[in-house]
Amino acid sequence: MERANQLNTQAGTIVLQKPLEAITLAFSARKYAEIEGSTIDKADSYYVLSIANLSISRYEEGLGYAKNSLQLFRELNKVDKEILALISIAQLYLRMSDFSLSLDYSLQALSLAEDQKNQSALAVITQTIGNIYSGISQYDISLKYLLRSQAIYQELQDENGLATTNRFLGSLYTNLGHFDIATNYLLGSIDFYRSAQNQHELATTLKNFAAIQIKKRQFHLALELLAEAIENIKGFGDKHLFASLISETGIVYSELRDLTTALSYLNIALAIFRESGSKEREVATLFELGKVHNALNEYEIAIELFTQALTILKEIGSNSHEVSICLECSKSLKKVQSYQASIEMLERAFAVKEIVLSQEKERIISVMEQLLQIEKFEQEKEFLTKENKELADALEEVKEKNESLLAAYEEIEIQQHLASKTNVELESANQKLLNLNEEKNELLGIVAHDLKNIAGSISINSSNILNYFTAMSSDKILRTTQVIKKSSDHMLEVIINLLDQNALETGKMTLVKSSFNFVMIIEEVIQLFQEHANKKNITIVFEKLVSHAQILTDKNRTKDVVSNVISNAIKYSPIGKTVYISLDRNETIIIFSVKDEGPGFTNDDKANLFKKYTRLTARPTGGENSTGLGLSITKRLIEEMGGTIELDNNYTDGAHFIIQIPMA
Predict the structure, then answer these.
(1) pLDDT in tens, 127-184
(2) pTM score over 0.85
(3) Separation CA 578–CA 541 (nearest Å)
(4) What span, in angstroms and rounded, lies between the C-alpha atoms of 230 and 223?
(5) Angle, to 10 degrees, between the axis of helix 199-215 and the axis of helix 219-233?
(6) Of 32, 31, 27, 34, nearest in space to 48 by CA
(7) How many C-beta atoms surround the C-beta of residue 170 within 10 A?
């Protein structure tokens, strides 16, 4: 083995645990590679340098080495190593928050890894794509890719990769506010990194775990975790992470109102960020220092610090933290009675906020356009087998539901026949029969109208596939099958609602009672409908006034009730509006409410609100389906649970439903 190869192998072995030593070895390897004339060893040394610099947060340097390695691997036609270089570049851009470029290189790596059936590379790529989604707050899609990465690592029995993915899952659930789930993931990663003596990853994971404690206002526990992280990272060479931990410690002391200690830590962090040239982190630390001096009533010092931060932002052409800095500086200026300057700072904050929102929108659009390429890539491989199987299953389920519906009709006929033969209270019985017959006719009219159109759509589109399959493009087949799937779903919804209504009226619906936390049900339903809300640009705001609300009833039917009310709010809300959800309680009752900004209800609507088979004035705003049974079933289910549902007539900006259920 040549000397350059030996040094690269040695550097690659220690690059994650001892990146500074790995850098020294990689430089020596590159020198020997040039002497030996070995292009592959030179490329390998560049790759090791990119990974080492990524580990110690020297992103610009690492990017240069990674691109050099990519160029040489491509010239040598080393596809397996080209994939590694692409992943390194994607991860470096991700750390620099350039999500668009990170995704571009991830897609290149994904395509090559799929062709090569390289499972190890696929695990890292899906992990990286999951973090890109998380970076633009698309947490549901991020979760899908991180779980895929987790599954691959489990199959490969790669404990280190699994620990890293679990750490990212912990951060994702922290952002979602699911601290218990996040804690489980992070504690598992912490245990592994401690046993593996991987000090850098351990410090990073401890920092993530401390973030949960800060959100939970467990500040003393957060300080213990940050102190352990700082101890582990000393001498590692990652000044950026070290300074971040010091800065975070200062912020915690500020929350504890130990302002003198907070200043001490923040000034140390500021010095390190200035030495390393990390301008944006320098700005963030100046901002935190300014807030502490404001708390000490040292407004002139605070103004000077804010001014320094704004000057740096102008120099580097960034607007990160600018809105917050301007708002805080405005408060300081007001305290020293510089009212005109305070107003000007407020105006600047509002102007910058508009720019930031515009930039954020453009960035997300750019990333989402590229992310669609991933979905298309996967659909092309899985569409025919997967979608056709789902269609067959759906049609079989429709058949079964139709049989159940016929049985329900027969039961109605039997009840009518028995009632007609009853001589006691004949007049009342006859009137009941008339009412039942009227309901049956109305029901048959609705079923005939809805199911005729749906079945017609399924028949026409199925015929098109059968008759013109060979002449149809993949996109055309996809669109046609999607229409069939949507029609089948609508048919199922109609039938299931009718069966639920029948079960309630005939007393055949039995509630299986159990004790559970109502809060968890609401959070599950919100997550279920989040994607639908996102498609309509609808914001869901959940005001959780209590964290625990135990009830004793049927868990699945409770989820049906919550799903119906929230889905209606999204269904009837115009694009770009907000749905407000709140949960409160008193000593005996849980109070759950949902407000939307839709058209609300007319007086006629209010009179027929909870009646069966009634379609109200409002129409869905995104082409969604409506059966006219949802609110009727919801009201009956809530009453079965011993609760109530009512419409707040004082709310005039849309619809506001209030549900009250007894506590366990």
Answers:
(1) 999 988 887 778 888 888 999 999 999 999 999 999 999 999 998 898 888 889 989 9
(2) no
(3) 7
(4) 10
(5) 170
(6) 27
(7) 27
